Amino acid sequence: MTAASQKPAESQEINLEDFETKHRSGLWLNRLVFSLSIFLAVAHIYINTIATLPELWVSAFHFAGFGTLCALLIPANQKWRDSKVAMFFDTVIVLALIGMVVYIVLFEDALYARGVTFNTSDWIVSSIAVLLSLELIRRTSGWFIPFLIVIALTYVVVWGSWLGGMFNFPGLSVETLLYRSFFSTDGMFGSISRISWSFVFMFILFGAFLVKSGAGDFIIDLSRSLASKMIGGPGFVAVLGSGLMGSVSGSSVANTVSTGVITIPLMRRAGFPARFAAGVEAAASTGGQLMPPVMGAGAFIMASYTQVSYVTIISVAAIPALLYFLSVGFFVRVEAKRSRVIATESDDAVKVSTVLKEGWHHIVPLGVLVALLIQGFTPTYAAGISILAVILASFLSSKHRMGPAAILDAMAQGAKNMSTTAVLLVGIGLVVNVISTTGVGNTFSLLITNWAGGSLFFTIILVAIASLILGMGLPVTASYIVLGTLSAPALFNLIAESQLLEMMASGTLPEAASAVFMLVDPAALATLAQGMPMEQAEALLAQVPNDFKGMLMDQALGANSVAMILVTAHMIIFWLSQDSNVTPPVCLTAFAAAAIAKTPPMRTGVTAWKLAKGLYIVPLLMAYTPLIGGDPETLLRLTFFITIGMYALVGAMEGYLEDKLSIVPRAALLVASIMMLWPNLDIWIQAVGLVLFLIIFMTGNKSYKKTLSPTT
User: Are 441 and 486 in contact (CB under 8 A)?
Assistant: First the structure.
């Protein structure tokens, strides 16, 4: 076991160095930050469990509290961190944030009593609130997001009316814009803010308690024990550890830093190239945001957008996430074979039974969480009870008991971890408000569809490009929110129409849905019953008025299938939003791994991008197969052939499976991968691809064994 995991949690004292601000202005400031963090944690627990307060008040308090933390933790400029002028400026920001909350509580009713007509104080407070949001986001995330917010806000009141064509917007008054941005539940304090102070905070706090209880060390130790006997074991430690850690942390960079300091040196000592080791950690940590239950806050936002339950979201996300980690694991195995990484360090690896015996209690809170969610409790309630379960479970082990100091530390760390996310999500609410107010989302969806020529494949390509561009300046969650608002309708329509066309072509369209076509071509009913060529089906569907297409989809596909298609559209966008983590030129997760491995950041990013190919393959399979929401038999078949198909594709890409491949078997392996991955092929074609893969695999394995010396 690691040294950290052997230290009893109950003996740990509160370490204020963890809360040392970047101002370095003295212990009193660290104590203030620590105390404020605990206060915010307790307040949010109270709000999410007992309190019945207006959501506008809660959202304003949420922004003010975590905005204060950001102002104290992050200076306006690093050069000014010891400046008294900077501290005075930060103090003014804190007082303005407090005043903003007080103003909403005391004077909101007065605004409505005046018929929603602004007076001078309304103008001042709402304007300052927007400016505070811009400044705090600039401090935490750079200039790109404030610039995007300014562009969005000025579009509504200034330059939207200058545009011609589909993006023309007549404009709103500044007063209306400020009202919708500040006082209404559509802007800063709208649904995104509500998700932030409820679901996101409670699960980040739950993750902080898990880490403080020693669960992080347990995850690493369990991963090392499980992978110790595997070829390329240290690489699989990174894959397993990052997947398990990411399932509760939801942050790819934090995942890389926390697990990479252990896994990257392990991989290097075992014989993996340094750049490959860093790339594996970056790719695996990126997958942590795809792994239920947290998914980097994506699951909660997706549930809000689609109106599909959180439990359903995380259940359908599990198999795609597993496929992603398998794809990274295949690269690890291939490189391990090629680099002769056979023996792994087993001198400090502990048996699985020993790890489970000493740390089984860490599994209890996760079991409680899953059980409560399955029983239908809200995610916030389930997270709250699971936090209590972490504390109680810690007393089942003499090494990890959480005393009062550890509990306070966990609450403070959870609040600190939440600070940048909170101000970011509140600020992004301004952009979402503009998109919904102006109808730009629908316009953008139509534009994407036109650019792609109605092709689902090219639409996904365009969304991927847009996500990469946005990801250069936006964090993953913010990128998903913006892209989901803009392009999800287009993806949803195209996926639904593709399934509808297949039913029309095969003659399986329900009778109730066929009746809709009487409006456009009564003679088509007989043809629909027998089936028709795809071109004829497309022409017939094109005649259906847009107002009736929604009803047609509901009748043909059913409410549950329509809901799953909507989830699929959002899941595709969420997956594609992750690519900025590992795709140059801006790939923070890869850069963090490169810093640990001491490798060139950009070249490490290229390696991580190659290893993360599942980020592109799996979304395509979501679009063209029932990977989301399919029946168990279909999912089992899909998972099996996709798994083997991705292994074959990795071998074809690397030119190495069990041994080096010459041009002919490499080409054959590529063909085999396509036969297994191509959507909706007959099972006998997939079986032929499987047989072809097995022949190449076994031939390579036999050849590989011949090259090994008796002492290897």
Answer: yes
